[in-house]
UniProtKB/TrEMBL annotation:
Species: Arsenicicoccus piscis
InterPro entries recorded: AB_hydrolase_1 (IPR000073), AB_hydrolase_fold (IPR029058), DNA-binding_regulatory (IPR052920)
Keywords for this protein: Hydrolase, Signal
Molecular function terms, GO-annotated: hydrolase activity
Residue ranges that the Swiss-Prot or TrEMBL entry lists as coiled coil: none
Signal peptide positions (record): 1-22
Stretches assigned to the AB hydrolase-1 domain: 79-179
One Pfam family from the record: Abhydrolase_1
UniProt-recorded name of the protein: Alpha/beta hydrolase
Length: 293
């Protein structure tokens, strides 16, 4: 009798644990890939930084309508497309974007699908968003067919930049700040930071992501593609104290990258913190890299 009760209790506990794990995995998958917008629909614009920009709209290959700001620089031979991070917006790029514009580059800032002023569409962590960057590059080339198109990305936007540039020879130069080497690794790092068992949780979240959002973690692995950017110039940037994407991701990317790549590590800064540690110096360093022969 006691054994039967004990087995029943263990079975019930296992069931509750499994249900809790499934619910947690579903919530985690939604946080990564589900629709989620800021509570307030308004934010900063180029007006706040004293820069002139044109509102532009364009469409990704799967029909997602996207919004951007075009900072025109007719005399420049380069246009820089800037990619924001996960759950961010083009307004987050009002430091580096206008900074590069003032340094003499044409610049396009845009919102990934489901963010800022862009419409909704299938969302992910650097998978479906590749279509958005491809469409942004199309727009830049349409407007400036004579210019070199370069890409600067931060966090998820950096992972998107690496993957798109790896297969799109129209991209000239790439700056990837705080990129992750692979999606599985960055999700596992987040699980460890929450004191969860990373492997079982990551596998479960991966399964839910495939079923609900149509892609696998293994589909997003910039480290497997980064070598294809060579010999085009690639600048990888990362902070030693990154609490979101551990700095080892930058070292893995640098090791896998080919000729023409550089790695710049900033001591003591957190995720995407190098810009904020020295704003003028950061803009100057990126501009110098983009101008280099």
């Amino acid at each position: 009798m006691r054994s039967a009760r004990r087995l029943a209790l263990l079975g019930a506990t296992a069931t509750v644990t499994s249900l809790a794990a499934a619910a947690g995995a579903t919530l985690a998958a939604r946080q990564i890939s589900g629709p989620q917008r800021a509570a307030l629909s308004y934010g900063f614009t180029p007006f706040e930084v004293g820069a002139q920009a044109e509102d532009v709209t364009f469409t990704a290959a799967d029909g997602a309508r996207l919004a951007g700001w075009w900072f025109d620089r007719p005399g420049s031979e380069q246009v820089v497309v800037v990619c924001h991070g996960h759950r961010g917006s083009k307004a987050d790029m009002l430091g580096i974007g206008p900074g590069l514009w003032r340094a003499g580059f044409g610049v396009l800032l845009f919102d990934f699908r489901g963010n800022g002023d862009s419409e909704d569409g299938p969302q992910s962590l650097a998978h479906y968003e590749q279509r958005d960057l491809e469409a942004a590059i199309d727009l830049a080339i349409e407007r400036r067919p004579d210019a070199e198109i370069d890409v600067v990305g931060f966090s998820m936007g950096a992972a998107v930049a690496i993957q798109v540039a790896a297969r799109d020879p129209r991209v000239g130069r790439v700056v990837a700040d705080s990129a992750f080497a692979d999606m599985r690794g960055v999700v596992a790092a987040a699980a460890r930071s929450l004191h969860l068992l990373p492997v079982p949780l990551v596998d479960l979240v991966d399964r839910v992501t495939r079923l609900r959002y149509g892609y696998r973690f293994g589909d997003v692995a910039p480290v497997t593609l980064v070598a294809r950017i060579a010999p085009r110039p690639l600048l990888l940037m990362h902070g030693t104290e990154d609490s979101v994407i551990p700095v080892e991701h930058a070292h893995r990317l640098a090791e896998a990258a080919g000729e023409g790549s550089q790695l710049r590590i900033t001591e003591g800064v957190d995720h995407c913190g190098a810009y904020f540690a020295d704003r003028p110096g950061y803009i100057a360093a990126v501009a110098d890299f983009l101008r280099a022969g």
